[in-house]
Amino acid sequence: MEEMIAGRRRFLQSGSATTVFGLFVAAGLIRPEAAFAQAGWNKDAFASKSLNDVVKALGGAGATPTNDISWGATPEIAENGAVVPINVTSRIPNTQSIAVLVEKNPNALAAKFDFPAGTDPTVSTRVKIGQSSNVHALIKTADGKYFVATREVKVTIGGCGG
Amino acid sequence: MADPMRIRATMQGDKVLVRVLMSHEMETGQRKDSAGNIVPAHFIQSVTAVHSGKTVLTAEWGPAVSKNPFLQFQFAGGKSGETVQIIWTDNKGDKRTDEAKISS
Fold first, then answer.
1. Contact at 8 Å (CB) between A147 and A92?
2. Where in B3-69 does DSSP place strands (E)?
3. Chain A partners of B66 at a C-beta cutoff of 8 Å?
4. Is residue A103 in some structural domain?
5. Contact A116 B30 (CB under 8 A)
6. Which of A47, A48, A130, B36 is the least crowded, having the fewest Cβ atoms under 10 Å away?
């Protein structure tokens, strides 16, 4: 009996702790995603709406257009906007990171990849593109310069044409 | 806990080509369910690839990466038989680590 009461007390205690946390969440004091947000994840960059804002959030001043980026198997017309293959290879010396941005998505930045020495500045992934949009590949070099290449990707969801 | 990743690491000349298929919903936080409630965002935020104790790739992802994400990259300095480890963490704090041997 003793044990059961103690157990119940513990349960109540832990229950109330959860509730207090729940209240904070409800009140917007702690957002659940913020509670688990990771140190390395650049929240501002992922909340940005445009190329320039993303460059700023990443700590750059502006991006220089370049042709030294190849798009590999990235399509110009994608049938399914939910799964668009993106393949970016940088020929810019000392490429440190490649970011993929979709201009017309709710938030422009889709993904950012960092390449330590010994890893080739080439990456393939798949992203969601809500509607036909410019896709930017943003390159950061080891000396902190930003370069950008742009390709228009048309999305034809359900064969309606884009 | 999410399903295991499928990782293939193969030698391509003197480089190691790594292909990863992860199992994750990658919910954007923009979608509504049939009752009209917004489905909370749930997506992989960070990915790390490690070979022989050295990080060979890190990535930060937003919810715009497709469901069941695919990732391909290549690095130098690996040998057949060694191990490549991939670690991801999502915005709810879930984590998954899987590894694969490099094949020739």
1. yes
2. 6-12, 15-21, 44-51, 54-61
3. 82-84, 125-128
4. yes
5. no
6. B36
For residue A100 the two structure tokens come to 């993929």
What single-letter DSSP state applies at residue A37? -
> Whole domain around residue A48: which residue ranges?
41-155
Q: Which residues pair with A151 in a beta bridge?
A: A135
CATH number for position A132:
2.60.40.2470
Tell which of A126, A131, A157 to mutate to test the B interface (max B CBs under 10 Å).
Answer: A126
Q: What angle do CA B1, A124, A154 make, to 5 degrees?
A: 110
Specify whether the CB–CB gap between B18 and A125 falls below 8 A: no
Spell out the residues 6+ positions from residue A26 whose beta carbon is closer than 8 angstroms to its own. none
For chain B, list the strands marked E by DSSP.
6-12, 15-21, 44-51, 54-61, 70-76, 83-90, 95-103
Query: What is the per-residue pLDDT across B15-51, written as a single tens digit (0 to 9) for each?
Result: 999 999 999 999 999 888 899 999 999 999 999 999 9
Q: Structure tokens of A95?
A: 């490429």
Q: Average pLDDT for residues A120-143, to the nearest whole number?
A: 96
Q: State the complex-level ipTM.
A: 0.95
Total-model pTM: 0.83
Probe site for chain A from B5, B8, B25, B45 (most A CB atoms < 10 A):
B45
